[in-house]
Amino acid sequence: VQPKNVIRGNHDMTTTALPELRTARLALRPRTVADLDLIAALNADPEVMRYIAPVGDPAMGRDGIAARSFSHVARGLSYWSVFPLTAARDLLGQDLLGYVGLIPDGDAHEQVQISYRFAARHWGKGHAFEAVTRLLRHGFETLALPEIAIVTHPENAASLRLATKLGFEPVPARLETLIGAPPVVATRMVLRRASFAAASRQGAR
Ligand SMILES: CC(C)(COP(=O)(O)OP(=O)(O)OC[C@H]1O[C@@H](n2cnc3c(N)ncnc32)[C@H](O)[C@@H]1OP(=O)(O)O)[C@@H](O)C(=O)NCCC(=O)NCCS
């Protein structure tokens, strides 16, 4: 979910300063310009976009994606493309599973929100949980974020289940936070660094 105001910035800024992150099965590679067409294709699937935005919304096309992909790299915030790893732990760069992101949250961009979107053919295999858990660890442990939010459509059962499984807890939505078409008041959930650390210590993830 993007903040209401479109983020504009330096489209040429690369994400090479950001780390590649890995899990048992997945590589999270910082988004590059070469990924934009793959992301635009993901955004063109009505099933994927059901609770996010109408297909054809210019903000979801290549230029819209480019405009918000690289503006906050200096803060360590951007998107990571998720690819499968082979048994030899090579990254299969042509088989995009989806993406995860840490992006500014709120009109003043003062907080951070997590974003996740996977291709429908890859749903239900635990990829999102695995990739988002890794990015949360990066956000809390490396970027030292105190809190990360998720903003989702109240009927997006998959997203709500994923967020709950990750330990996010509902908080009152800001009234201005609308999502979907027709727009509805979004469900806002947050996860604090201490809760994430406690769950990690208990082996919950
Ligand atoms: C939300 C999304 C990323 C989940 O991806 P995924 O890889 O299928 O998720 P996982 O396999 O890691 O599953 C995580 C949990 O969600 C549950 N889940 C997945 N799809 C579900 C659905 N349609 N309804 C209810 N629960 C669902 C899983 O069963 C699992 O919970 P469990 O372990 O208790 O069974 C994926 O559905 C998606 O990309 N949706 C479209 C984009 C979107 O809506 N993004 C969120 C915008 S805020």
Protein described:
The protein has about 200 residues and is of the alpha+beta class. Helices cover about 25% and strands about 25% of the residues. It has five helices and ten strands; from the N terminus they run ββααβββαβαββββα. The strands form three sheets. A five-stranded antiparallel β-sheet has the order 1-2-3-4-5, with helices on one face. It has a three-stranded antiparallel β-sheet with strand order 6-10-7. A two-stranded antiparallel ribbon has the order 8-9. Strand 8 (about 180) and strand 9 (about 185) form a beta hairpin. The chain is globular, with a radius of gyration of 16 Å. It binds coenzyme A.
Give a summary of the structure in a few sentences.
This protein is of the alpha+beta class and 205 residues long. The chain contains five helices and ten strands; from the N terminus they run ββααβββαβαββββα. The chain has helices at residues 36-43, 62-69, 127-142, 157-165, 193-201, and strands spanning 21-22, 26-30, 78-84, 98-105, 111-118, 147-152, 169-171, 178-179, 184-185, 187-192.
Task: Itemize the secondary structure elements and their pairings.
Blueprint: E1 21-22, E2 26-30, H1 36-43, H2 62-69, E3 78-84, E4 98-105, E5 111-118, H3 127-142, E6 147-152, H4 157-165, E7 169-171, E8 178-179, E9 184-185, E10 187-192, H5 193-201
Antiparallel strand pairs: 1-2, 2-3, 3-4, 4-5, 6-10, 7-10, 8-9
This protein binds coenzyme A.
